[in-house]
Amino acid sequence: MTPPRLDIDLAAIAHNSRLLVDRLALKGIRVTGICKAALGSSGVAAAMVQGGVTGLGDSRVENLGRLRTAGVAVPLTLIRSPMLSQVDLVVRDAEVSLNTEAAVLDALSAAAVRTGVTHSVVLMVELGDLREGVAAVDVVDLARTMGKRPGLLLTGLGTNLACQCGVVPDQRKMDELSRLAGEVEAACGVVLSVVSGGNSANLDWAMSTGDVGRVDELRLGESILLGTEPLHRRVIDGLRTDAFTLVAEVIEAKLKPAQPWGDIAQAAFGDQPPREGAGTVRQAILAVGRQDVDPDGITPPPGIVALGMSSDHLVVDVGDHDVSVGDELAFQLDYSALVRAMTSPFIAKVERS
Prior knowledge:
Its cofactor is pyridoxal 5'-phosphate. This protein is an alpha/beta fold. The chain has two domains: 9-226, TIM Barrel, CATH 3.20.20; 244-352, Beta Barrel (Lyase, Ornithine Decarboxylase, Chain A, domain 1), CATH 2.40.37. The protein contains ten helices and 17 strands. Strands 2, 3, 4, 5, 6, 7, 8, 9 and 10 form a nine-stranded parallel sheet that branches. Strands 1, 11, 12, 13, 14, 15, 16 and 17 form an eight-stranded mixed sheet that branches. Helix 1 (10-25) packs parallel to helix 2 (42-50) and helix 4 packs across helix 5. The radius of gyration is 23 Å and the shape is elongated. 42% of the residues are buried.
């Protein structure tokens, strides 16, 4: 397969899934694998299932539809509050959705009745990160109304931290979620089967706490796909970081001055940091750009330094590497770069078991 491409190692994804599933099982926590960065890839989904996840989640109902068409056998969860315009798709392609708005719940109820299904709902609680969530003081009242919505079944509470403002999921936050789960059960006469504590940012808390409380599920994406935790981007012990590799082709290789010359204004994407060094550098251009990947999220091979990226060109200093036109260079990706690369139609995706 010609570059640019993403080489995807499904065995690495299955390995990471299995280690995290087994470690969290000792705490009584199951894993929903979040494959939104994989754009509905049935191969990535199957690798997560092979690794033991009990369900899969995605923020785009279109991706869930791809997984449903591919015959994925585990429950599917829409992890973004449904759009009113997509409620029929949601109840068709997802067993569960995360919700915060009464108007959306009303529309989901009507869609479920129209299609003759029962759709499960997890109410999301705002615990400080200021993204989605019902205020803690209002969640019991909203939960009480669920019995008036035919076709819907209240199955859980959840929260999300560290995505918008970087708020750390700690013992105090998780204790509050557990307390609210108990209040909802007492007020509504139900037993919640899901108390979803959050995402990969919860791993430090989950593995170090002596009391997980009512939290019985985590929604893990970055940790499975990249082997890192989101709070500090540290590699998780025992996990592989090579599941995704971006491969790009060299289209120019020349000796060039280290510094530009002439009057300097803004570059294509605004002000650029000044180049370092003097004399000449062995510069190469690769056929990949900001249309395809986040330039701040790629790590070049040792001894190679990224000098800049425009829409369609990545310029690097290859140092002592012997690089010629037509050669391929491989880059590691962080989560931001992975999401953009998976979305780019110009990057081929090659899955290997």
